[in-house]
Amino acid sequence: MDATTYARRTPRAAARGPVPVTGRLLRVRPVRTAAGVVGIGLALMLILLLAGLWAGVQERVTTFDDNLGADLLVVPAGTRNLHQTRGVTPLTP
Q: Model's pTM, two decimal places?
């Protein structure tokens, strides 16, 4: 196959290299592209914010338990931590 036949069969974009998609989108639809970039940035920011809040809650939820200073706690059966208990201990065993 000679160079002329190859050039006819090869698409133009492949012959010139990769297509600059970002540059093309910025020229054709600049507002839509900017809105997409801002939306993706806000979504990432919210994910990081929620991850930080969750890490803070997980760290602080045991502060009361850790600093209680008691050797023995009496709680109802099935209590997973002091924040999920009803605060009432039954009278019968």
A: 0.51
